[in-house]
Amino acid sequence: MGEQKTLVLTGASRGIGHATVKRFSSEGWRVLTCSRQPFDPRCPWPGGEENHIQIDLADPNKTIAAIETIKGKIDGKLHALVNNAGISPKGSDGARLTTLDTDLRTWGHVFHVNFFSCVVLARGLQDELAAAKGSIVNVTSIAGSRVHPFAGAAYATSKAALAALTREMAHDFGPLGVRVNAIAPGEVETAILSPGTDKIVEKLPMQRLGQPSEVADVVWFLCSPQSSYISGAEIEVNGAQHV
């Protein structure tokens, strides 16, 4: 048997992250999950609890400290890092937070989770990624390129920044043999959908929500040999929402 490959993924508890763990696990990969919450025993993948690392990505010091914990679990090689964790705070009435009503602490909180943690983890694990000639996938969003009716201003701009960061990282990590790409999901069916999603779906050319597994398949492709000359790209997975 060949070497078992290893994935580190942030934000695995539901939706796209959950589907991505299942996709890679089905291919025989070892998956290390990172989140603020303890491991949920209902998550159905092998070695889930022992391969879970509790990290508060909103706290820079805790994120930096967690890198050594990750290093201790991956034995010198990391084949893929998927930065999937993301938060989009709402107003007290559940409304979208705009540039006019988002306070500074909220801006900082969102950017630490959605943006800064991605480069901190990638930089901290660069040696392990280089040793495996691995891949990094940053999960951006359709909201990063156009104003979205539900996603707040801090979320949208953090995802736009992450798209730019992906290009910078592709340039910097390329000489190490590490590819860096992003995926920008559109409307994806999850356990929690914002009110009004049905109105958006009516206007989609494909007239349906995307499935988390469809997004996970694109993540898988970007971490596979079939995408060996793709780096610095942001792939939209949105059912032609922006045509």
TrEMBL record:
Pfam short name (any one): adh_short_C2
Gene3D superfamilies membership: NAD(P)-binding Rossmann-like Domain
SUPFAM superfamilies to which the protein is assigned, alphabetical: NAD(P)-binding Rossmann-fold domains
GO MF annotations in UniProt: oxidoreductase activity, acting on the CH-OH group of donors, NAD or NADP as acceptor
UniProt xrefs under CDD domains: SDR_c (cd05233)
Family the UniProt entry places it in: Belongs to the short-chain dehydrogenases/reductases (SDR) family.
Alphabetized PANTHER family for the sequence: PROTEIN FIXR, SHORT-CHAIN DEHYDROGENASES/REDUCTASES FAMILY MEMBER
Record's protein name: Oxidoreductase
